[in-house]
Design brief:
Elements lengths: L12 E5 L4 H12 L3 E6 L4 H11 L4 E4 L5 H15 L4 E4 L14 H29 L2 E6 L12 H21 L4 E8 L5 H6 L3 H10 L9 H11 L10 E4 L8
Parallel strand pairs: 1-2, 1-4, 2-3, 4-5, 5-6, 6-7
Helix pairs in contact: 1-8, 3-4, 4-5
């Protein structure tokens, strides 16, 4: 967990999708340690995690159960978080699903579901928080993308399509809402070894091959993503919008 302190994040109203597991759990803890008022959504009950976070940080997050593919429910949860914590000034669109699949096996229903969780929910969460950000006079939207589409990976074409779309969404929202002092940036992590990744897809051969591509010879952990997200949420990055920040240990080189 980062030792950096961002004073403007204290008491800030933060909303995180998928904030109870994987990278999202570390993000929730990171913002709580900054003194932020954190609300997060997830499909599974996170009551035990909420208690754990309060014990560890002295700051209790608000958990709101939600399937983010249900747009009306997602908007309702944003409204509930706003009622509890005030206008949301940081939105972290973190929830995603990188289920492996082959192009010839994809059905229309699977494609629609992948777009719903990996792209559509990002759009409508952003839409839901923008009126409150306008009222507050500022805001930061942080959309999670991935380096997978930059690498042209073939293991999940629907997922990489959504990831590329997230960059387009990020740039368009940055342009449209910049005059309202609302910033929108993307973060593109490399292969972060969450429990899910280790259980489902990480093999010794795959990890070794990925390590060969990395400039920094240490696999990424969820904590490695927390500092960059806090930076993008804070006024420290106040002149940064419409950008995609790669955090991957040096696998892809941008510019």
């Amino acid at each position: 967990m980062t030792d950096a302190i961002f004073p403007d994040l204290k008491n800030a109203s933060v909303f995180i999708t998928g904030g109870g597991s994987g990278i999202g759990a570390n993000l929730t803890e990171g913002f709580l340690r900054q003194g932020s008022k954190v609300a997060f959504v997830g499909r599974s009950d996170a009551s035990a995690f909420v208690d754990e976070m309060e014990a560890k940080t002295g700051n209790r997050p608000l958990f709101l159960q939600c399937d983010i593919t249900k747009t009306d429910l997602l908007k309702q949860r944003v409204a509930e978080a706003t009622e509890a914590h005030g206008p949301i000034t940081t939105l972290v669109n973190n929830a995603a699903n990188d289920e492996r699949h082959n192009t010839l096996d994809v059905t229309e229903d699977f494609w629609d579901w992948m777009m719903a969780i990996n792209l559509k929910a990002y759009f409508f969460a952003g839409q839901a928080v923008i009126p409150g950000m306008r009222k507050a006079g500022h805001g930061s939207i942080i959309n999670f993308s991935s380096i997978s589409y930059m690498m042209g990976m073939g293991d999940y074409p629907a997922y990489t399509s959504a990831n590329s779309g997230i960059n387009g969404l990020t740039r368009s929202m940055a342009r449209e809402f910049g005059p309202d002092n609302i910033r929108c940036n993307a973060i593109a992590p490399g292969w972060v070894l969450t429990d899910k990744q280790m259980d489902k897809w990480a093999t010794p051969e795959g990890l070794a091959k990925h390590m060969e591509r990395m400039c920094l010879k240490e696999h990424l952990k969820p904590d490695d993503i927390v500092g960059p997200v806090l930076f993008m949420a804070s006024k420290t990055s106040s002149a940064m919008t419409g950008q995609a920040m790669v955090v991957d240990g040096g696998v892809v080189v941008t510019g």
